[in-house]
Write a structure and sequence with these properties.
Length: 92
């Protein structure tokens, strides 16, 4: 049986390995946690300006929750990696 162009498997159709996916999620978690800790430190240093310290806490406080959710979630299988659109040959 002969394969048609639509049945040809592309390497870009393959999902990223679990190790690559975990590495990306760990990197995202680390960056968000550094931002969270920097915000807490900055708010502690600016305790003399309560409105500014409170504003920084309001902005960086939810980063703890966001980092945890992003680190523990995997993309759905259909969104992990998509194949590029097929190339069309120019007819002449």
């Amino acid at each position: 049986m002969r394969r048609t162009r639509r049945e040809v498997a592309l390497i870009t159709d393959a999902a990223p390995s679990l190790t690559e996916e975990q590495r990306g999620r760990k990197r995202t978690y680390s960056v968000l946690m550094v931002l969270h800790l920097a915000g807490l430190t900055l708010a502690a240093l600016l305790v003399d300006v309560p409105w500014l310290a409170l504003g920084i806490l309001v902005l960086t406080g939810p980063l703890l929750w966001v980092a945890t959710v992003l680190a523990n979630s995997r993309p759905p299988p259909e969104r992990r990696r998509r194949a590029p659109p097929p190339c069309r040959a120019l007819g002449g």
